[in-house]
C-alpha cells in the first residue's frame, strides 16, 4: 500500500513538472461552431503565444459538466451561442465577475452582464422573412402582427426546443408580460403552415419553396444563405426578403453569443486576456465577416451582406432578461402546443 | 450498503466482491440519474401532464410499435430466408444484410432528408417532370415525420434482430424440423410452429436491443420533428433546469423497458428453448425458383439497399467535392478505432466476468445489480452522459481534495476529460449489448462442463479461460464487434466527456453536419461506415461458423 | 483417520429447504458405494458436496485423511483431486477426444501426458477415436471418453452421477460391466448415484439407500435385500406384495398368517411386505388360492394368485418361480411362506 502511494506521488509530481514546463495555456468550453471560433482562437495563440485547448459540445451539457466538476474544473472560459445559457451559468455559480477596462470600453452595457459575469461578443437579431412575391413588407411590421389570424397557415418557424425561440418569447414576456406573451405564442402556433421542424435555414428555404409565406429566423442564417457556395441556397434566399419588426416602437429582438470566465479558472489571467482579445477589433471583425453577425464593438464594420440590410433599431433591454424568463417561456410553448 | 451480498451466512467471496464492484461502477450513472427521483416536483408534473406528456408518451409508443414490428418482420424474415433457402444472391446477402449496422442513424437521417426534401434531387426531378414550380403544386410524403423516423430506425436497427435470429436458426437441430415435417407440417408451418418458438428468446433479445436504441435516441427523432420521451427529458432538464423531473421521466422510461422485458419472460412461461437433441447435420436448404426467388431476393435486398447502399452512395457523391486534411483525418480515424477496439474488448471481458460470476453465485442481489448495468443502454445518451459525469467528477474531486490536503499538490481532475473516462462512459452505455450476447452464449457451456473442469483441477478463473472462452469464442467476438460498431457511432457521451482538442469521426461528422456542411461531413461519415465494414464481415463469418459441429 | 472418503454428519440446504440431513458414510479405497434412492432424495447433492461443487453447511468431508469440508474449511473442487463422471458426460465440445482426456493432466510433460491419455483411452476401448470430436461420438462412446477423462489424473475418489442413464438397455449392461472393470483395476474409491436398484445391486460393494435427504439404510446388497430396514427399503428392490394389517399384542394377522410386530403399539395400521420369492404355491384341489395368470419372463415365471380375504374381497399376490412345478392357470393351490422374506414392523414404512 505504501509503495503504491509512493508510486502515485511520483507519477503526480512527474505529471506536474511536465505541466509547469509547458507554455501558458487557457482551456475553453465552447458551444460555438468550431469553424467560427477556431480562426479567432488561432489568431489569439499566434499573437500571444498562449495555447488554447478547446472542447466543443452543446451548452446545456457543458454547463452540466461545469457544475459537476465544481471548483476543480479545468475550464477557464465558457463560450456560448445564446445569452440564456450565460445567465444559467451565472445562476449556477460557475462563472466569476471580471472587471476589465478594455471590455467595458469595447462592449455596450446592454450586451454585458451588469456585474461583469459574462460578456456578449457578437449580436444577432431574430426577425421575420417573407416571400417577396406573395407578401408586402408593409403587411408585417411587428412581432405582434405574427399572431394575427390573417397569417393562418402561412408561418414557418422551428421547434420551441430551440433556445432562439425560447429567448424570443422570453423577451416578449419581459416587454408585454406573460399573459400577452402566451396569447401571442398561441396565435403564432395557430398560424403555422406546418409542424415546426428543421433549423432556421429550413424555414427560409420553405418560404422560398412556397410551403409558407413568412418565417422567423436569425439574421446570420439568411446572410449565410445569401453568400452560400451552393447555388440552390443563394437562389432560395433571393426569393425571400428580410423585415426588422417593431422599428416604430421598441426595436427588433436582439440576442448575443458571448463568454464568461469560469469560477474555477486556473488560468484566470489568460482567460481574461482571451476575452479581451475577443472583444478587440481583430476578433470582432472575424466574427462579423465569418458569420454575418452584428459586431457588438462600435466601429467594427459589418460584412457587406449585413451592411446592405441597412441600419435598424435594436430592442433596448438588457439581454440578461432573456435568460431569466426562459423556463417560463418553455411552459408557455408547452401550453399553446408549439412543439 | 451497495457492495455487500445479502446472503449473510456466506463469507465475502472474491467473485461476489469483484462483480459487485464492476457492476456497481457501471450502474452508478444510472443510479445518479435516478437519485433525484424523490425530489418533489408536483407542479412541473401537473404542467407536463396537462400539456405535452400525452403526446410524448403516444409518440414513443407509436415509434416503438413501428420500429419493433419493422425490425422483427425484417430481421426474422431475412434471417430465415438466407439461412434456410437458396436463391440468387442469397450467399452475398448473408453478410450484406449486416451492413446497415455500420450506419449511424443520424447519418441516414441526414442523407434521406437531403435526398427527399424539397430542394433534394428526388423532388427536383419530380418538379421537372410534372412542370410544377412550388411545394403547393403537388403532394410529397413528409420525410420529417413519425413515419420517416420509424423507417430510418428500422433500417439501421433490424440487423440486431437479424444477427440473433440467424444465429438461433443456425443452431437449431434439423431433427426437430424434420420431426415436425413428418408430423405433417409444411415448411412454412414448421417455421411458424417450431423454428420461431425455438428462436424466440433470441428474437426477443434482438427486438429488445433495437427498442432500447429507439428509446435512447434523441438526435434522430429531433431531426424528424417527433417529440418523444427523450425530447421531454431534454427539455425539462436542460431548458427548464429541472434535473429531478428529467430523472423522473427517465425512470419512467426505464420502468417501461423493464416491464417489457418481464412481460416477454413471463409470456415464455416454463417453456425452455433448449435444444433437446445433440445430433446435427448440415441444414437442408430449400432452393427457391422464379417468382419465389425473386420475392425472397427483393425482401432481403431492400433493407441493404435502403439502409446501406443508397445512403453510402449519397455520402460518396457529396464527399467528392470536399477538400480533406489527410493528417487530421488519420488522427480522427485513429482516435475512433482505438477507442472502439479497447472498449469492445473491455466490454466483453466485463460482460463475461459478470455473467460467469453470477452463475457461480446465483443470488437475487447480483441478479438485480446486473439488470441495473444494462439500463444505461435505454437512457437517452445525452442524459446518461451527464449521469456519468456525476460519479466521475465526485470521485475525481475526492482525489483532488486528498492530494491537496495530504500531498500539498494541486492535481486537478485526473479522470474527467480523459480517454479513460470516455471508455468508462462507453461501457456504461453499451455493456448491455455485450452482456446480452455473452449471457446467451454462456448457455452453451453447461453447468456440468464447468463442474467437470473444476474437478479436473481448474480454478474458476482458469475454467473461464480454458473452457468458456474457447467455446464461446464466436459469440465473444460478435459481442466485441457489436460494441465496436456502437462506439464508432456514439455521439452524445463522446461530445461531453472527451478531453480538450480531441475529436473522433463521429464528433467531426456531427459538428460538420449540424453546421449544414453535409459535403464535408460526408467523408468522416463514410469513414465510420468503412471502419464498420471489416467487423461486420468478421461478424458474419463468426455467425456462419457458430453452427455446432462446424469446425474450421 | 481413514483412507478413501469419509462423510460425517453432512447437511445441506437450498434456501431453507433441507436436501441433505445428517449423512454419514465411508467409502474405502477400491470400494464402490452406491447412493440409491428416488429422485429428489438428496443423493446427487451428497455427491456434489463430496466433490466440493456445493459448499456444505454442516458436517465434514474427509478425503484420504484430509479434511476438505467442515471445521470452517472448504477446499474448492480443483483442490480435491476427485474424478467426476456426469450424467450428460459434459465433454468439452471445443476439444477432441484426446485433448479432453488430457485436460486434467495438462501439467505433466507432454510425452507422459500423451501416453497416459492413450492408456486410459485404451482401457475404455476408445483408443481409435483419439482424434474424433465429441459430437461425432455416440452416447456410449461419449460415456467412455468421459470415464477416461475423469480417471486420467488418477483421482483419489471417483464420483459417478447416474452415469448410465443416458444409454439404451443393451449397451448399458455392457458399459456398466466395462466401467466396473476399469474402476476396480484402478483401485479407486468410488461413490455412484443411481435410482436403479438393479444397477446398484450389480455394481455396488455397499449400497446407501436415501430418502428425504437421509441415509435410511446402508449395507451390502444382499443384506439390504435380505434384511431391509423398512418397507421403503424392501420395496425398492423389485416388486413386493404389501398387506395392510392392524397390530394386536405385538403381532399382526394377515391372510398369509400371523407375523411378529414387536415394539409396535396395539391398533396401529402397518404394512407387511412379502417378497414374491417368499410365496411358493403347491397344487392342491382344496388349496386356499386360485391361479389367475402365469407369465413366463425368461429365467423366472411370474404367477398371479387370488386369495379370498375374511371380508370376502379377493387379495392379489405375486410370486416368482423358477424351474419345474409351475401351476397352470385356474388351478387351485395351497401356499407356503418363507418367513425370512416377509418383513413386518417395527420396520414400518
Molecular structure report:
The complex is a heterotrimer of chains A (339), B (552) and C (349). With 339 residues, chain A is of the alpha/beta class. Chain A folds into 2 domains: 2-122 and 256-301, D-Maltodextrin-Binding Protein, domain 2, CATH 3.40.190.10; 124-253 and 319-336, 3-Layer(aba) Sandwich (D-Maltodextrin-Binding Protein, domain 2). Chain A is 47% helix and 15% strand. Chain A contains 15 helices and 9 strands. Chain A has helices at residues 2-21, 34-48, 59-69, 83-91, 101-106, 163-176, 178-191, 200-209, 219-226, 231-238, 268-279, 281-291, 304-307, 320-324, 326-336; strands at 25-30, 51-56, 77-80, 119-131, 155-156, 214-218, 240-243, 253-261, 294-295. In chain A, strands 1, 2, 3, 4, 5, 6, 7, 8 and 9 form a 9-stranded mixed sheet that branches. The longest helix of chain A is centred in the first third of the chain and has 20 residues, at 2-21. The model of chain A is unreliable at 1-21 (pLDDT under 50). Chain B is mainly α. Chain B has 2 domains: 42-104 and 142-272 and 283-317, MetI-like (MetI-like fold, Orthogonal Bundle), CATH 1.10.3720; 321-552, Orthogonal Bundle (MetI-like fold), CATH 1.10.3720.10. Chain B has 23 helices and 2 strands. Chain B has a two-stranded parallel sheet with strand order 1-2. In chain B, α14 runs parallel beside α23 and α17 (419-442) packs antiparallel against α20 (473-489). Chain B is globular, with a radius of gyration of 24 Å. Chain C has 349 residues and is α+β, with helices and mostly antiparallel strands. Chain C folds into 2 domains: 5-233, 3-Layer(aba) Sandwich (Rossmann fold), CATH 3.40.50; 239-343, no CATH class. In chain C, the strands form 4 sheets. Chain C has a 6-stranded mixed sheet, with helices on both faces. The model of chain C has no long low-confidence stretch (mean pLDDT 87). At the A-B interface, α1, β2, α3, α8 and α15 of A face α2, α11, α16 and α21 of B. Chain A: One of its GO terms (cellular component) is outer membrane-bounded periplasmic space. Chain A: Fe cation binds at residues 220-221. Chain A: Keywords: Iron, Metal-binding, Signal. Chain A: Pfam families: SBP_bac_8 (PF13416).
